[in-house]
Design goal:
Layout: H1 20-47, E1 53-56, E2 59-60, E3 79-80, H2 81-93, E4 96-98, H3 101-109, E5 124-131, H4 135-152, E6 158-162, H5 179-187, E7 191-195, H6 208-226, E8 236-238, H7 246-252, E9 258-260, E10 281-282, H8 289-297
Parallel strand pairs: 1-5, 1-10, 2-3, 4-5, 5-6, 6-7, 8-9
Amino acid sequence: MSFSPRRVRPFFVKFRPFDRPRLKVILTTILAFSLGLGLALLTFKITTVEIPVFGFHDIIDLDNPAEQLPQRSPQAGDYSKQNLSVFLNYLVKQNYWFLSTSDLYDYFLNDPKKPIPEAHKSQKPILLTFDDGYKSAHRNILSILEAIERQEGQKIKIVWFINPAFLGIRGSQLDRVDCTDLREGVKRGYYDVQSHGLNHLNLTQIDDEKRDRELLESRKQLKACLGDLDARFASHIAYPFGASNSRVRQHVSRYYLTGYLYNSRILRPSRLKSKYSIPRLSVDDKMSVARLKILAAGFWF
């Protein structure tokens, strides 16, 4: 039995005349879809405010032997003073608006919102937060902020989320700031101080009575430390471990204006379902400065 091999059409053969209209329709459809998608993304970018809220922990100096092995073991959430300095200097040169928690609340979250000041309308807002109140973080951050103000003539505002039960406590490796440290940063215009719970307990794992004590006593002690400097301090809270649920949010709303999470998302105020679920971007030593710049630029999903 014999057969003729099937003739294979070369891939480079030209379309026959009756295929050309179909190809034209396909290409036109693709082009229209691409233009429509681009326009939609551009409109989204223009009309949707994005605010990256970064969450740091301890800041360590790579040139300080006391903050390196064997004197100090690496901790989860460490970030280097050197990389933080590069990042903050970049933000200054890019003309970012460094928000306080009150700025975020007043201009973007409250109802009604305050009108954005003319001086900030052309700036992209950003919020920099530091949890737990480590002494080394205070020392290293303060030196960066001083250098930027001296060299660039700009004062940067950063937010501390503090556990007041640990103020002034000396640890085996990680000492905590005391009230004097915080007051120094506040008086110099660098620090906004807010609550991180009294003892850094997981608020989802304790009973209502203990939870209320964690929330209320933290606020009272921070007010006692700083209330004469700024009445707005201790009005916002970052949930310890980023842990929150509906019961926690219900209790938090009795004492605080907002609550901050850790969920690696960017804040879009127009899409925020609750002021007690503000997203934060968790930062650790695995994140390069280049990555932080991308996150600061926003418009990612």
